Amino acid sequence: MPLRALYTGFLALSFCFFSTLPNARAQDLTSVAGAPAAAMANTMLTDTNTWAATNNPAGLAWNSKASIAVAYRNAFLVENLGTRSIAGVLPFGNSAFGINIQSFGYQQYLSNRLGLAYGLRLGEKTSIGAQIYYHSLTLDEMYGSTRFWTIGLGARFNASKKLTLGAHVLNANEAALTDYQSERTPARLAAGMAYAWSAKLRMTAEVQQVSGQQGGMRAGLEYAPVQNLVLRCGGGTGPALFSFGFGWRVKFLDIDVATHYHNVLGFSPQVSIAWIQGRK
């Protein structure tokens, strides 16, 4: 077998293997970022926080203050299954720019992603957004690496004072991973809503379809029992998922902790910290 065919075949098989791990895809093109979304079963399409730079760029347009956030996630408490993320938002009139960087893995299997995003308000109720990612996937010295580009598109609509709708397609171009059997990266199409029952209680629900996988549904709850403290939980299918966590607001900082739970593989904790300029 030619060396190039061996390399591309191994790369494709490695990608497929890690992609089958629930909530721990090595080159996780369909991942979300930030503990607030993680605590609510990754329901995040209507969020307007710093992590909108990754989760749905349409949410960026509703930011009026610059911010930056960092996060770390450890899948199933396995040392080498760690994901490091950073995101930033810079408002500009009725729009905002975002940047996000994500790194997963270790020396023998390292996945990096750099993204730029832009969100624009179209009136008082609607916003749209777009993002572009540069990916690199590196194996050990014997098998080398591959690099590719992906794009994402999003929309957000304030249907009423209580109901907000969102939609997002990630990796819309289904970028080629290798030449081996035309292996391509998965695309994700998601749509969802958030409903504010009161000033203290919010519910989220989403449906999503990842190419080559079974579709799924997810839902989350967010409750603020006292000022500056938020409790969150969520669950869903495709794959089966249960999550919970909390958030604490300290002046210009948002500190959030979350974990996913898999009934066989166990817990995947995540922590994130966001700094919001000028907030008191």
What attributes characterize this protein structure?
14-stranded antiparallel β-barrel, 14 strands, mainly beta, disordered N terminus, Porin, single chain
Structure description:
With 280 residues, the chain is mostly beta strands. The protein has a single domain, classed as Beta Barrel (Porin), CATH 2.40.160. Helices cover 9% and strands 54% of the residues. The protein has 3 helices and 14 strands. A 14-stranded antiparallel β-barrel has the order 1-2-3-4-5-6-7-8-9-10-11-12-13-14. The longest helix is centred in the N-terminal third of the chain and has 17 residues, at 3-19. Residues 1-27 have low confidence and may be disordered.
Write the layout of secondary structure elements.
Blueprint: H1 3-19, H2 35-39, H3 52-55, E1 67-74, E2 82-92, E3 95-106, E4 109-122, E5 126-139, E6 145-158, E7 163-170, E8 188-196, E9 201-210, E10 216-226, E11 229-236, E12 241-250, E13 253-262, E14 266-276
Antiparallel strand pairs: 1-2, 1-14, 2-3, 3-4, 4-5, 5-6, 6-7, 7-8, 8-9, 9-10, 10-11, 11-12, 12-13, 13-14
